[in-house]
Amino acid sequence: MKTKVLFLLTMLLTLSTVNAQRVNGARVGYIDMEYILENVTAYQEANTQLEAKAQRWKNEIQKKQNAIDQMKKNLSAERVLLTKELVDEREEEIEILEQELQTYQQDRFGPFGSLMAQRQNMVKPIQDQVLTAVQDIAKKKRYDFVFDKSADVVMLFSAKKFDISDQVLRVINRDEKRKGKEEKIRKKNEKSKFEDKDSEPNPEVEAKKQAAAEKKAERQKILDERKKKRLEEREAKKKAYEEKRKKLIEAREAKKKAAEEKRKKREEERKKKQEEKKKENEENGESGGAGDGK
């Protein structure tokens, strides 16, 4: 602030010196860039279109955010019903979508994003017109200095009679009308050519579509690779489980077969003993009968 005040004091001293050398003194004017921009139709129309575009971007961001929030809610509700692999897969997908959304926000509304770049591109032609108009007016009316009231220079006081903003606006509007008439004539004379050009694809739009498609394909590729890896791991676990199950079944069958053979063997031994005992009893009976006859 002190630096700006010193700058103004220096300018006043300079003007006083010039005034001492010239009878009428230095001619000083100023403009209000904000006032000029507010009253330039082309700027206002472009600004309205840009605001509408920014709102569409905000809606897209909100839509993507709502989709991510819904995915989180669904995962939270279904977590107990899902396997660990499916939970990890969904969490990774959500994380990727969140990273893409953050990148999209920076691309649109960041300090170097589309909104800032398009706003600068929109303002620059008007600034160039203002500069040209100011130079023409200054030369014709012999102004020594022209300041911008809305710039960083602090104007502690500015008399309205030194404000040439309306003069600049008249020059700009006159040029715009002239350009509008020329453009209307050009469109009328080259209507067919214009329609052919209009039907051609916009390289910038096509490039953005291509980039979006490539990004989507890359994300899908990552998801497919991770899914493939999980399937392979799942199949390996399933195969190991089946082999283990098969061994358990074989061991159980072998144990069952061994038990059956053991039971059969015991049964055969029991029958054999019964037959031997029966035979022994029969032999003892015959021996007793022969003794009684004697």
Explain how this protein is built.
This protein is an all-alpha fold and 294 residues long. Helix 5 (114-141) crosses helix 6 (165-189). The longest helix is centred in the C-terminal third of the chain and has 91 residues, at 203-293. It has a two-stranded parallel ribbon. It contains eight helices and two strands. The radius of gyration is 48 Å and the shape is rod-shaped.
Q: State the end-to-end CA separation.
A: 155 Å
For the secondary structure, the number of strands is 2
Given the structure, what is the number of helices?
8
Mean pLDDT: 79
Overall geometry = rod-shaped
- Name the helix and strand elements from N-terminus to C-terminus, one letter apiece: HEHHHHEHHH
Describe the main β-sheet briefly.
2 strands, parallel
List keywords for this structure.
8 helices, disordered N terminus, 83% helix, mainly alpha, 294 residues
How are the secondary structure elements laid out?
Elements: H1 2-21, E1 28-31, H2 33-38, H3 41-78, H4 84-109, H5 114-141, E2 145-148, H6 165-189, H7 191-199, H8 203-293
Parallel strand pairs: 1-2
Helix pairs in contact: 3-4, 3-5, 4-8, 5-6
Short description:
The protein has 294 residues and is an all-alpha fold. The protein is 83% helix and 3% strand.
